[in-house]
Amino acid sequence: MSGRLYFEDLEVGHVIATQGRTITEADIVNFAGVSGDYNPIHVDAEHAAVTHFGKRVAHGVLGLAIATGQAYLTGLLAHSIVAFSGLEWKFRAPVYIGDTIRTELKISKKRELPGANGGMVVMAIEVINQQGEVVQAGTWNVIIANRPTES
């Protein structure tokens, strides 16, 4: 499928894959500033070096935030998402400075919402690093609009 996707275009099993994005030190520093999370595992190289990670790791929620941005940047759902209504999320492996992550969204369920001009779509999400390892995963529940009618 190409172009914008609306509720009726989405079929269970359909996969949307994003481009990769490399995590930088600036991403981590900026996210710490925005969130107020200055945990030394993220911002202190000396502290992080003596942890079981051995170096600084990105905030888990930064990975989730980047995944939502990657999904939006595909443009496929940019104009049809009405609301992000919930999620379940697991942090499976660390994301380090220099890692390149991409996101795969797979439609796992859909249900019309009468009167809402669209429906609920459940997507299985995987955030995958440059080695093919799933570092974060879960489900997103979103409301997707129906295709606009021609006037």
CATH superfamily: Hotdog Thioesterase
Proportion of residues in β-strands: 35-45%
Query: What would you call the structural class?
Result: alpha+beta
Using only CA atoms, what is the Rg? 17 Å
CATH topology: Thiol Ester Dehydrase, Chain A
Domain module tally: 1
Distance between the termini: 24 Å
CATH class: Alpha Beta
Average pLDDT confidence is 95
List the helices and strands and how they pair.
Layout: E1 15-17, E2 21-22, H1 25-35, H2 40-43, H3 45-49, H4 60-73, E3 81-91, E4 100-113, E5 118-128, E6 134-145
Antiparallel strand pairs: 1-4, 2-4, 3-6, 4-5, 5-6
Describe this structure in words.
The protein is an alpha+beta fold and 151 residues long. The protein contains four helices and six strands. Strands 1, 2, 3, 4, 5 and 6 form a six-stranded antiparallel beta sheet that branches. A hairpin with a 5-residue loop joins strand 5 and strand 6. The radius of gyration is 17 Å and the shape is elongated. The chain starts with 14 loop residues before the first strand and ends in a 6-residue tail after the last strand. The mean pLDDT is 95.
